[in-house]
Amino acid sequence: MNRYKKELLKKYTPEQIKEMEERHRQQHKEDTTNFPELYSFIYDSSVDIADRKRGVSPLSKSARDYVRKRYENRDYPKRLHALVMMELNLSDPASHNAPDEKEKD
Fold first, then answer.
1. How far is CA 53 from its chain centroid?
2. What is the mean pLDDT of each run of 10 residues along the chain (105 residues)?
3. Is the pTM higher than 0.85?
4. Who's near 58: CB < 8 A, 6+ residues apart?
5. In a 10 Å sphere around its CB, with 0-12 CB exposed, 13-18 middle and 19+ buried, how is residue 38 labelled?
6. Contact 71, 88 (CB under 8 A)
7. Residues in Cβ contact with 88 at an 8 Å cutoff, skipping those fewer than 6 apart
């Protein structure tokens, strides 16, 4: 048994813990079904991951606009705002130019 479970058992009964875990699983399933655009990072390729680390969004402009519009309309529950902000804080790939190449003499 890991430390987290031991700490939970100090405060809750095993039945309460099972109920909390089931509620969490159900909530996550609903979130991934209702808001799949926020979980697209799970399917990122190695190139997409590198872009995200540099602060460049691998999503298309229309996808980013869709996320922004839903956020502004308050369509996302508060618990998902961190995922929304992760997407919205990345910049547009078109705004990043390739690094300047050194001129050859």
1. 13
2. 88 94 95 91 90 87 90 90 85 51 41
3. no
4. 44, 47, 48, 51, 52, 93
5. buried
6. yes
7. 64, 67, 68, 71
Q: Which structure tokens are listed for 79?
A: 């618990």
Label residues 52-65 b or e (16+ Cβ within 10 Å = b): beeebbbbeeeebe
In the structure encoding, which two tokens stand for residue 68, read together?
A: 């922004």
Q: Which two tokens stand for residue 30?
A: 């609903």
Q: Compute φ and ψ for 56, nearest 5 degrees.
A: -110, 130
Residues in the chain: 105
